Structure formats: C-alpha cells, structure tokens
From TrEMBL:
It is a multi-pass membrane protein. The chain crosses the membrane at residues 43-60, 72-89, 109-127, 233-252. Keywords: Cell membrane, Membrane, Transmembrane, Transmembrane helix. GO terms for cellular component: ATP-binding cassette (ABC) transporter complex. It is found in: Cell membrane. The keyword Cell membrane applies. InterPro entries: ABC/ECF_trnsptr_transmembrane, ECF_CbiQ, ECF_transporter_component. One of its GO terms (biological process) is cobalt ion transport. The gene is cbiQ. This is Cobalt ECF transporter T component CbiQ. The keyword Transferase does not apply.
Length: 253
C-alpha cells in the first residue's frame, strides 16, 4: 500500500471532504447506510431529506451531479428487480393505470429503490473523494482483519495488471486478423482465458517469492499512520448524526 493508485470513481480535488482522513469517511458512510436501512419505508419524506443531505455533501466535495449519476448506473440491475416486484408479489392488489399490482410489491419496490439508491450514492461519494490506497489505510486503521486488507490490496494492485495483460492478448489476436463473431470462435477465446489464468498464476507465485525473499512473514508494514482529530471526526459524523435525527423522526411521526 505504499504507492498511490487512482481509480475511475475517484475525482481529484482539494475539498474539505477530500481532506478528511479515510477511516472517518468509511465510518460515516457505514453509519449513514445503517441509519437509512433502519428507516421505516412508510416515512417517504425521510428519504427525500437523506437525498438532500447527500446532495449537500456532494456540493461540499465539489462532485458534479452528472459525475455522480453516471457512476450510479451500477444500480440498474437492482432497479429492474424492483420494477418486477409489484407484478410478482402476492397479497392485496390495486389497479394502477389499468395494471393489477401488489400493494406489498409496491412498498417493497419503493423500499429497495429508495434505500438502494441512497446507499449507492453514499458509496459513490466515498469513492469519488477517497483514493483506493487511502481506503485500504482507512480499513487498516479501523482494525479490520489484516488478512482481508492484504487480499484487497493485492486484488487492487494486480487487477489492473491482469486487465492490461488481457488488452495485450486482444491486440495480439486482432493483429493476426482474429475477430470473435460467433460460436466457432469460442475455442480461441477459451484458450486465451486459459493462457491468461496460467500467466496470472505464475506472476502471483513470482511476486510471492519476491516478497518472501524480502522478509515478508504474513503481514505488511504500516508505512503511513493516518490519524484524525476530534474536529475531523465531528465533521465526518455530521452526516450520519443528521440522518439519525431524521430516522428517529420517521419512527415517531
């Protein structure tokens, strides 16, 4: 985790949100999602306030709405699932625009869409303001199992290496006039996948031997010790605390 590693979700900036220690942002995001999930689905106004809170954080982080919405498209499969719920769920039915829909399915669809969208938006905001290396340092600071942090670190580091290897293999195939156009080309693609697996496995073994030869004994050294002041914790926890107030009002009102 000693070298920087930017990712596509990250948006470089110098906002107050970017400057917060990573473990405070991780804790705040997790707490916010827990509060959102705990909110009763009938309190529809509460989810509007949650969206307003996230919009405020996005404004403070100088993350454009277009940037945020584009990266929230990962939620599309869950949206499709939610749309089907009113049609397949059982129970009391209601007619909407000539369609017979389940009341429980409508509430379930709203529950999935509202809470899922807010959770995805919060996660995208976290990724937009925190580099991958900082996220790993934050997980380490929050005392997550070291083995899990190491696995995540290696996965991030060598994911791009494998992707680059795939790109070179694709260029090599195309330079020889190959284009996958049908089932009869699946054999070539399968052989390429097998070769990629072997190369990745061999690369992993070489990296492990290099690490062992340099004194690796199952744990990575802590190069950067990230700390947070009381003011930084207060700033980061302002979001989940405000959301908690909204959640309590949702249960009371």
């Amino acid at each position: 985790m000693g070298a920087g590693h930017a990712h596509r979700l990250y948006r470089h900036g110098h906002s107050p949100v970017h400057g917060l220690p990573p473990h405070t942002k991780l804790a705040a995001t997790f707490a916010f999602v827990v509060v959102v999930v705990s909110t009763p689905r009938e309190a529809m106004w509460a989810f509007g306030l949650y969206a307003l809170l996230l919009a405020t954080v996005a404004y403070a982080a100088r993350v454009p709405a277009a940037f945020l919405l584009k990266r929230m498209l990962i939620e599309v499969p869950f949206v499709a699932f939610a749309v089907l719920m009113p049609f397949v769920a059982e129970g009391e039915r209601v007619d909407v625009l000539g369609l017979s829909l389940s009341v429980n399915g409508l509430w379930g669809a709203w529950n999935v869409l509202a809470k899922g969208t807010l959770g995805v938006a919060a996660s995208v905001l976290l990724a937009s303001t925190t580099e991958l290396r900082e996220l790993l340092l934050g997980l380490q600071r929050l005392k997550l199992p070291p083995l899990l942090v190491q696995i995540a670190s290696f996965m991030i580091r060598y994911g791009d290496v494998i992707a680059d290897e795939m790109r070179r293999m694709r260029i090599a195939r195309e330079s020889r006039g190959f284009e996958a156009r049908g089932v009869r080309h699946w054999g070539v693609l399968a052989k390429s996948a097998g070769a990629l697996f072997i190369r990745s496995y061999e690369r992993g073994e070489r990296v492990h031997l290099a690490m062992v030869s340099r004194g690796y004994a199952g744990s990575m050294p802590v190069i950067d010790e990230v700390t947070a002041s009381r003011a930084q914790w207060s700033y980061a926890l302002a979001l989940p605390c405000a959301a908690l107030v909204v959640c309590l009002l949702g249960w009371v009102l």
